[in-house]
């Protein structure tokens, strides 16, 4: 491969006077552009022939890493397997070419899809109904909290302005509560990583609107005290909110509604398969138990709450419904148990060389606290960078914040034992390298187009234009 085409910026391949396009003759005459709309200087654009441009970007596209070309231990939180049919269905003209403002009687098929998905989600979650309006998971969280506020206000109980959030929660939980105008109260976790019921009991009073929980939690642990927690919360007049980010291992095993949750959002782009690396697209339907349906913000309910005039991201809705129908009730029940099996297999196979801060059965994910042997000085960052040399995407690192060298691994249900065994072998090899060749890890990666970068400098002083790079 010509490294000149592969490793350089498109600007560095530029030659004055080269063009990769030709425009038809001007048949419309010349028009003066107003002075206030003109550039002071010509745009600095690269001048390349068409083949150079095609080869440059085609070669660079090979640097993209996805679940289609390698093991991605970020799993259902970031890049769950997305079967090709999930792309084909939204690409059909009858779905692709619709407009949100066209007459309702011309999109009855699309509305049937939405109705079918709402029914399926209600059955999966054990709740009464869902709205598909929210555009993302965080948008769903905000919507769910707005539903809870509207419920309390409808009863004249307006002093409930606080939300209890575990100290292990996703960062969006307190953020969404704050945006909703609610005060955040933190509840502690026990030494084994679950909500401290005794601490929670002391926080509950008539100012609490809701308790937000993820189950399994951010450590991948099932909140085994959930029946007692739900009882305490409901007795004080508050509601239970379920963050659906970790719903994947629950499929086929249990339902949030049966646990006592009143309101929840589901990340369709996580649990039900839509790749969303890079920030989008997403969809965050919100479901409620029976008796709260009237507060849902959509056209199906007589609600004064509005978060969007449309059915969220319809393409993601289509993918989720396709995924659910493809599995059917016969096979969707295997998703959670298989994800749990894969995660526990990796955990048990590596816990002798990586520190496992909380022992016991995990669900779809678990957290190591770096290498078991701390004498090497090798960090979680070093391990993650070295994984790239072996062709694996790094897992989530330095989250959750409960552990200094956190490394969250989440394989999902789709990976075979052969693939997982290969990952385990590499992780063990890296642990051995940390003892015998630590500098190899500190300077990793070695086999990627770009080596170790200064992450702090890149975050604080990003160079995003070619001109700036030359000036630097």
TrEMBL record:
Its EC number is 1.4.4.2. Residues 338-436 form the Glycine dehydrogenase C-terminal domain. This is glycine dehydrogenase (aminomethyl-transferring). Residues 147-277 form the Aminotransferase class V domain. The keyword Calcium does not apply. One of its GO terms (cellular component) is glycine cleavage complex. The glycine cleavage system catalyzes the degradation of glycine. The P protein binds the alpha-amino group of glycine through its pyridoxal phosphate cofactor; CO(2) is released and the remaining methylamine moiety is then transferred to the lipoamide cofactor of the H protein. It comes from the Bacteria. It is an enzyme of class 1 (oxidoreductase). GO terms for molecular function: glycine binding; glycine dehydrogenase (decarboxylating) activity; pyridoxal phosphate binding. Keywords: Oxidoreductase, Pyridoxal phosphate. It holds the Pfam family Aminotran_5. GO terms for biological process: glycine decarboxylation via glycine cleavage system. InterPro entries: Aminotrans_V_dom, GDC-P_C, GDC_P, PyrdxlP-dep_Trfase, PyrdxlP-dep_Trfase_major, PyrdxlP-dep_Trfase_small. The keyword Transport does not apply. PANTHER family: GLYCINE DEHYDROGENASE (DECARBOXYLATING), MITOCHONDRIAL, GLYCINE DEHYDROGENASE, DECARBOXYLATING. It catalyses: N(6)-[(R)-lipoyl]-L-lysyl-[glycine-cleavage complex H protein] + glycine + H(+) = N(6)-[(R)-S(8)-aminomethyldihydrolipoyl]-L-lysyl-[glycine-cleavage complex H protein] + CO2.
